[in-house]
Design goal:
By secondary structure, the protein is mainly alpha-helical. The chain has 2 domains: 249 residues, Growth Hormone, Chain: A, CATH 1.20.1250.20; 56 residues. 77% of the residues lie in helices and 0% in strands. It has 13 helices and no strands. Helix 4 runs antiparallel to helix 5, helix 7 runs antiparallel to helix 11 and helix 9 runs parallel beside helix 11. The radius of gyration is 21 Å and the shape is globular. 42% of the residues are buried.
């Protein structure tokens, strides 16, 4: 809706900046509310509360969003494509998740990963043949949009992975309550919103997505490398706060301009699928990231406890912190590789939002 309602570059940048600010504020409220519900009620209420939120959203959408008549033929749902890509993505995520209980050398691990890759390739082939593709390839084959989706995918890996293991560290090592853990993330949310707003309104309209996305990934990689310096005796103020805020700057500079670029220049009939692909890229990145990083951390934890006194709380705490450090280094490497890939794929220069291209 933003991409079709705001076609002028300045207005579009402002609209996406506001969108990013609202999203960041929602994330901040969600962290605090999730902590309150978990600490004073039960963790299940973090799921129940979404029913009420969704009900409010439905009423608001029905009351405020005007209905528009559709011209031309109504597209049909690509059921075969939906089944193929769902099976492929499931196999890839399950393959990474299985490493926690099976070694990397296990045939089941590589069988699922290879099967998922084959199914994704089949999905691409099918999208070229079907009359009503689930994902028209013209949406992602454009260099700018394809690179933007890749950036969002990598951002999802890093963001969800960092949240997971930093939460483990704050609650398991620093013994923060769920509420205090939510508060501890607020400085990162603040820098994320600020960096996202600046990059979306000032940098992206002038220079395109390549510069902010590449720079943002490098900053995020540096922040994760910095955060990998934690230890069992680390403190929040001395060892977590500064790299956490730097990470927010990197994520904001990466994801906000990438979301804008991912829906730039699409045909009006493709605006919905382009936006949906952004959400899918982020969620699949988070799923793959959590599965992969959790597997790496679990392997590191098990390796650190080999031959050690696993009943000693200090030994277990040191092993746990070691596993978090491995995960943070992995996130740093992923962001560094993403900076190189997105820097090569994304175009430089002022984005053209006035003319929708294929």
């Amino acid at each position: 809706m933003l991409s079709t309602s705001f076609t002028e570059a300045g207005q579009r940048a402002t609209a996406f900046a506001v969108f990013g600010g609202v999203s960041g504020s929602g994330a901040a409220i969600g962290m605090l509310l999730g902590g309150v519900l978990t600490e004073f009620l039960d963790w299940r209420f973090t799921l129940y509360v979404n029913v009420a939120i969704a009900a409010i959203a439905i009423v608001g959408a029905a009351a405020l969003i005007p209905r528009q008549s559709r011209g031309g033929d109504r597209p049909q749902l690509d059921i075969p494509g939906t089944l193929i890509v769902s099976a492929g993505l499931f196999a890839i995520v399950y393959g990474f998740a299985g490493v926690e209980s099976h070694p990397w050398s296990a045939s089941s691990t590589w069988g699922f990963l290879a099967g998922g890759a084959v199914l994704i390739a089949v999905f691409g082939w099918w999208q070229r043949r079907t009359a009503h593709p689930l994902l028209p390839l013209r949406v992602i084959l454009d260099r700018t949009r394809g690179g933007a989706h890749l950036a969002i995918f990598i951002g999802g890996i890093g963001l969800f992975g960092a949240f997971l293991f930093l939460t483990f560290f704050l609650q398991g090592v620093l013994h923060y309550s769920p509420v205090m853990t939510g508060i501890a993330f607020l400085p990162m949310v603040a820098t994320l919103v600020i960096a996202g707003g600046v990059c979306t309104t000032q940098v992206h309209p002038r220079f395109g997505a390549r510069i902010p996305v590449t720079a943002g990934m490098l900053v995020a990689a540096a922040a994760m490398a910095w955060l990998a310096g934690i230890g069992p005796d680390s403190t929040y103020a001395g060892h977590v706060l500064a790299p956490l805020m730097l990470f927010g700057i990197g994520i904001g500079a990466t994801v906000a301009p990438a979301m804008n670029a991912a829906t730039t220049g699409v045909r009006s009939q493709d605006a919905g699928i382009a936006s949906a692909t952004v959400s899918v890229a982020q969620q699949i990145g988070g799923s793959v990231g959590i599965a992969l990083l959790n597997s790496l951390a679990a392997s590191a934890l098990a390796g650190r406890l080999v031959g050690a006194d696993a009943t000693d709380p200090a030994v277990r705490a040191a092993a746990a912190v070691h596993s978090y450090i491995v995960a943070f280094w992995a996130v740093s490497a992923i962001f560094a590789a993403g900076a190189v890939l997105c820097g090569l794929i994304l175009r430089s220069g002022r984005p053209d939002t006035a003319v929708a291209t294929g």
